[in-house]
């Protein structure tokens, strides 16, 4: 069901890889709610993914951009403003990559060169996106930027490795840049801490299947799906949440506030 929450709004979606990705589901919901979109991802992801299929559905151009390259990001924003015929209202940052995780390196044995790349791609990329928009004055007043994160930024999940550090930095960037952008243009910057979700990226974490089952038992409402996360992002892009900024917003069925649940107790007592 559409409520026209984003009618007339224009946004950029980073990170739609395939139909399982939260960015993909969010693009679909934004389109349903009346938004005009530009889709973007790294050149290598554009070759690997199916983004052109999504582009046809949501009637959006695909503009590649390396999130570690300021020139690329400025060209993306300039091209988007030109395409829309005006400034941008919202941005979804759904970007993350860990070479240490891909190589199976334990947190106690990190390759620091890999770690620098992880932080560059997964965290500092948000600062670059915000900085590029700031420099070009590309966001409308009361615009909204949302970045996807995970509770491992606050709590230990051993197999999440360096991505926990990356998410902690991501959330800090959102708070710090959010302060300055609120003063300058009333732009809101928030992070959404989503339940573990069966995406291509999430499935690469060691022990993911076991953990997603545990999280389901630990969440009174159960795990939030990618489509439900997309719904939540739509509300944050809309004018209904104008006074929400610099927040890390848990969208996890209550997992983040649960000490233990009966489902977990019953499992342990079997």
Please render the helix and strand layout as text.
Blueprint: E1 10-14, H1 22-32, E2 36-40, H2 43-48, H3 51-58, H4 70-84, E3 88-93, H5 99-102, H6 112-122, H7 124-136, E4 139-149, H8 163-185, E5 188-194, H9 208-218, H10 226-237, E6 248-251, H11 262-268
Helix pairs in contact: 1-3, 1-10, 4-7, 7-8
Overall description:
This protein is α/β, with parallel strands linked by helices. The protein has a single domain (10-206, 224-257), classed as NAD(P)-binding Rossmann-like Domain (Rossmann fold, 3-Layer(aba) Sandwich). Helices cover 45% and strands 14% of the residues. The chain is built from 11 helices and 6 strands. It has helices spanning 22-32, 43-48, 51-58, 70-84, 99-102, 112-122, 124-136, 163-185, 208-218, 226-237, 262-268; strands at residues 10-14, 36-40, 88-93, 139-149, 188-194, 248-251. Strands 2-1-3-4-5-6 form a 6-stranded parallel β-sheet, sandwiched between helices. α8 links the parallel β4 and β5. α1 packs across α10 and α7 packs parallel to α8 (163-185). The longest helix is centred in the middle third of the chain and has 23 residues, at 163-185. The protein is globular. The chain starts with 9 loop residues before the first strand and ends with a helix.
């Amino acid at each position: 069901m559409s409520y026209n929450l984003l009618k007339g709004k224009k946004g950029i979606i980073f990170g739609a890889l395939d139909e399982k990705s939260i960015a993909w589901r969010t693009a679909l919901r934004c389109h349903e709610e009346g938004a005009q979109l530009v889709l973007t991802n790294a050149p290598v992801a554009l070759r690997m993914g199916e983004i052109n299929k999504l582009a046809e559905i949501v009637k959006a151009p695909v503009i590649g951009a390396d999130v570690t390259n300021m020139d690329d990001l400025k060209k993306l924003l300039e091209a988007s403003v030109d395409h829309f015929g005006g400034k941008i209202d919202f941005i979804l940052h759904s970007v993350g990559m860990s070479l240490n995780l891909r190589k199976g390196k334990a947190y106690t044995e990190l390759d620091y060169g890999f770690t620098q790349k992880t932080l560059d791609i997964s965290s500092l990329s948000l600062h670059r996106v915000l900085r590029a928009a700031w420099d070009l004055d590309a966001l409308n007043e009361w615009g909204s930027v949302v970045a996807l994160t995970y509770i491992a930024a606050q709590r230990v999940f051993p197999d999440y490795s360096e991505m926990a550090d990356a998410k902690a930095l991501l959330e800090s960037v959102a708070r710090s840049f959010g302060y300055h952008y609120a003063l300058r243009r009333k732009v809101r910057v928030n992070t959404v801490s989503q339940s573990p979700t069966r995406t291509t990226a999430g499935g690469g974490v060691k022990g993911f299947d076991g953990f997603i089952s545990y999280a389901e038992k630990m969440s009174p409402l159960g795990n939030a799906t990618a489509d439900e996360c997309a719904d939540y992002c739509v509300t944050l892009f809309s004018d209904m949440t104008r006074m929400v900024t610099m927040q890390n917003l848990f969208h996890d069925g209550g997992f983040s506030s649960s000490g233990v649940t009966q489902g977990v107790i019953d499992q342990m007592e079997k």
